[in-house]
Design goal:
Blueprint: H1 2-41, H2 50-53, H3 76-91, E1 99-102, H4 107-112, E2 126-130, H5 138-162, E3 165-168, E4 173-177, E5 182-184
Parallel strand pairs: 3-5
Antiparallel strand pairs: 1-2, 2-4, 3-4
């Protein structure tokens, strides 16, 4: 009985999330289609489900913004190398199935959310994603660490080729962009990244 209740609760939660995107999509379908068509013309596509790739930012409610957003056409091209990088990370099995938590942020939302003034999210060149569960178990933490090690190895070997920026945080949260070969950790500086020479 309890299993059936929890299953039903999970279905209700997922439907609620899906419906919030569906409601937004009704008013924005044309813009979404145009964006996806542009990506297809440039031999790429969203590396995660549409509803994840079009999320604005975690602080959207506090900032009185929309939960989803389509980037301005002027920055569409900036997403191409980052999307292709994300696809490579999946193809080479560097990362498992992940949840994208943020990609493009409008200048207004970025300021309100406390993002860096020159954030690569504003230029539509970044993806934030989470490895594992939001509240990981000890076993999950071990898997998260293993994935972080794989990301560091990829960054060291191919990072310059992709102009890859890699932010590795203490949680399962990861940032990638294609705006410069660099890495950082909790304090947004290179020495705090587990990918820096200090850790290897």
């Amino acid at each position: 009985m309890l299993i059936r209740i929890f299953t039903l609760f999970g279905l209700i939660c997922s439907c609620a999330y899906a419906s919030s995107y569906d409601v937004w999509l009704k008013s924005n379908q044309t813009r979404v289609n145009q964006y996806k068509a542009f990506l297809k013309q440039n031999n790429t596509q969203f590396p995660a489900p549409d509803a994840q790739m079009l999320r604005s930012a975690r602080d959207w409610q506090r900032c009185h913004y929309t939960e989803f957003d389509v980037p301005h056409k002027s920055v569409w091209k900036n997403a191409i190398p980052t999307y292709k990088l994300m696809q490579q990370l999946k193809l080479q099995r560097v990362i498992p199935a992940v949840e994208v938590t943020s990609s493009y942020r409008s200048p207004f939302l970025n300021r309100c959310a406390g993002g860096a003034r020159m954030s690569s999210h504003v230029t539509n060149a970044a993806i934030d994603f989470r490895i594992g569960k939001e509240n990981p178990t000890l076993l999950d933490r071990a898997k998260i660490y293993t994935t972080k090690v794989k990301l560091c190895h990829f960054w060291k070997k191919y990072g310059q080729q992709y102009n890859m920026g890699l932010g590795v945080y203490p949680t399962g949260q990861i940032h990638i962009d294609t705006q410069g070969y660099r890495t950082w950790g909790a304090n947004h500086k290179a020495p705090s990244s587990m990918c820096s020479k200090k850790y290897w």
